Amino acid sequence: MAWLWALVALAPAFVFLIWCLLSPRPTRISLRSRHVVITGGSSGIGLSMAKLAVLEGSRVSILGRNTDKLTAACQEIVSYPETVQNLADTAEPLAVFGKPQVYGYSADVKDFSSVEKALTEAVEKLGPIDVLICSHGVSTPARFEDTPLDSMYHMLDTNLKGNLHCLKAAIPHMKSRISEGPGCISIVSSQAAQVSLYGYSAYSATKGGLRGLAEGLQQELLEYNIRVSLIFPPDTETPGFVEENKTKHELTVKLSESSGAMESMDVAKAAIHGLKAGQFSITCNFEGLTLSTVTAGMSPQPSLAHALFEICTMGILRIVAFVVLAGWYKTIGEFNRGQRK
C-alpha cells in the first residue's frame, strides 16, 4: 500500500507542474461592450453566434455576400433579444437591450479587397475589432475522383484562402484596439478536420489546414494579447448542410448515420462559451471532445481540467479510435464487395 500513498502524495505536485506548464496561460474573454465581427453571419452558425453576441452586450458586424440576406439577418438579430432574454452566458446580461448595434456588410471572402473594404467600414462604424469569428465555409462532399476540380477550388478558396483573407485584413485593426482585456480570433473548422471520412477528402483538406494556421497565429499574436481558437462543429442543421446532403455518397451517409446533426444555436452556445473561456480547441459535444483529445498533438491547452483529461484518457481513446476505424473499414469493405457483385 505504500506505493498507493506515495501516488496520492505526489498527485498535487503533478497537477501543480501541469498548471505551471500550461501555455498560453488561462484567461477569460469578455464580449460586453466589444466589437465582434462575424463572417458568414447572415445564416447558420454565424447568425446564431451573432444573436448570442448581442445578448452578451456586443456591438456586432456581420459579413456575407447577399445584401438581402444580410438585411434580413440584421433585423432578425436586432429583434432576437426581445424574444429570448435568458440565453446570455453572463452574470449581467443585456446592457444594450432594446437598442443593439448590428450592421451588415457585403463581402466575398474569396476576394481580399472586398473583405478589406468591408472591415474598414465596420471599424469606422463601431471601432477596432475586439473579436473576429470566421464562420464562413462551404462543403460539397463526394468521392475525391468524382469531385470536379472547380468544386475543389471553390472549397479551397472559401474555407482556407477565405480565412487567410479575413485574418490578413482584420489583424491590423485588432492590434490597434484600445479596450482592456484580451482580443480573440475564432475560426470555425469542422470535426471533418479532426478525422476525415469517405467522401470528405477534399473538404477535410481545406478545413485541416486551418489548424496549422491557428497554432502558428497563436504564437505570433500572443504579444498583442490576442487569443486564437478553433471551433470544431459536427454536422449542423444549417442551409449549407441541406445543400451538402445533396451530394453525399451513399457510403458517406451510412458511415455517418450514427451521428445526428446538432442545431445551429446549440453549436453557437458551445462556441461562445469556449471562446469566452479562452479555449484553443472548442468542441460542441462529447464526440467532439474525444476527437479533440485524441488528436491534440502539439496544440495549445490553457485549461488545466482539459489538460488532465487529455493526459489521463489519450491512450484509452486511441484504442477506441482503433475500434471505430475497424468498423468503418469493415463497412467500406462490405459496400465495395456488394458493388462488385
TrEMBL record:
Please name the GO terms of the biological process aspect recorded for this protein, alphabetically: 3-keto-sphinganine metabolic process; sphingolipid biosynthetic process
* TM stretches of this protein: 307-329
Q: Which CDD domains would you find in this protein's record?
A: KDSR-like_SDR_c
The EC number(s) given in the record are 1.1.1.102
* Annotated SUPFAM superfamilies: NAD(P)-binding Rossmann-fold domains
Q: Which Pfam families match?
A: adh_short
Q: What GO terms are given for molecular function?
A: 3-dehydrosphinganine reductase activity; nucleotide binding
Per UniProt, the keywords (alphabetical) are: Endoplasmic reticulum, Lipid metabolism, Membrane, NADP, Nucleotide-binding, Oxidoreductase, Sphingolipid metabolism, Transmembrane, Transmembrane helix
Q: Which EC class heads this enzyme's classification?
A: oxidoreductase
- On the tree of life, the source organism's domain of life is Eukaryota
User: Per its UniProt record, what InterPro entries does this chain match?
Assistant: KDSR-like (IPR045022), NAD(P)-bd_dom_sf (IPR036291), Sc_DH/Rdtase_CS (IPR020904), SDR_fam (IPR002347)
> Can you say where in the cell this protein is located?
Endoplasmic reticulum
Location (main, coarse): endoplasmic reticulum
Q: Which GO terms describe its cellular component?
A: endoplasmic reticulum membrane
Pathway assignment reads: Sphingolipid metabolism; Lipid metabolism; sphingolipid metabolism
Task: Report what the protein is called.
Answer: 3-dehydrosphinganine reductase
- What is the organism field in this record? Marchantia polymorpha
